[in-house]
Please model this.
Amino acid sequence: IPYPNKNGEPCGFGFRNGAFLQNIRKHILTQRNIRVIEGTVTHLIEEEDTIVGVNYKRKLAADEESLYAHLTVVTDGPLSKFREKLSKPVNKLNGYFLGLLLKNCELPFANHGHLIMGDHPPMVIYPVTSTSWRVLIDFKGEKPPRLGRDFKKFLLEEFEQAMPKSARAAFVAAVEEGKFKTFPNHRLPANPIKRQGAVLLGDALNMRHPLTGGGMSAAFNDVLRLSNNLEKIIDFSNLRQLGKAVQKFYETRHLGTQTTNILADGLYGVVYNPDLRKAFFEYVSRGDKYAEETCSILAGLNKDKKLLLNHFIAMARYGTQLKISAEKPGVVVTESLSMVKDAVGIITPLLLSEKPDPGNKLMLEALNRIV
Model:
């Protein structure tokens, strides 16, 4: 699926997340107006109802130290220990990704990500270097998969034949090598609490399923929107101005992340529904706007929630048309209606979690009760 060729041709990059972040840190270290202190924050310092700084401990140090600031930016990731002080989180664990590395192989589309769907858990494959590919396999449930010799056998039996032929030997080698990584997949709608002197952003505030790789796009959106608000403040000791900037960020950040969130969790629901999974594949296989506009939302290039909703419903409708035309109409009418109902059931709660306007909220709540 190509990126939309508008206003110049955009391109995507596959990379190791850890290496990418380390390179960002290297760049930060070169900036003269930034002082870097490495340590572990232990507490937020509170005076009355205002956060005025942090207590932290340097590596190998015995004693804690304190830092004070007019604004503390909390970005301690998916396992945030300060989340509950700055939001009302409703965190849902969807399952786990198992990661392994394919070496020295080719995939059907060089320099592209691949989503492998079928009668097995979904797999995501994307390049991380010129000679290696990261494979992520989804495992539902509240507990991570149990690793061991039997697990290797299970992986080969369940997924080897689902891999593209050109990558099967590399997949077998990666399984036998056994260098697996597991990490949890969360869904966490943003529900911040305004606290004077602090702001929460990134995965600490809001998470979606990583199936579409939208976490970094959402984090950069948070950074950009918060920065744009803060750069207008001349004096950070003016707590009223500072509070307004943070409040505006909380009120508008969803405009940059809502399509990323809805598509990620919506597609995760689709890939586990056999009828919708087939409908999605056939829909984007039509090419043209059916593929390009969908990809533009996936890549974070298009943030039009209405466009996303239109494509989602059109995909379900197209699936029903294919099912009815392929078989006797009387046999599949019930299944077709069920497909549309399933699609509405997937998308409605996601739309409700992204600050709909009052009129749409009433309609969505009514739909949610029906499905």
Summary: The chain has three domains: 37-86+189-237, 92-186, 256-370. DSSP finds twelve helices and ten strands in the chain. The mean pLDDT is 90.
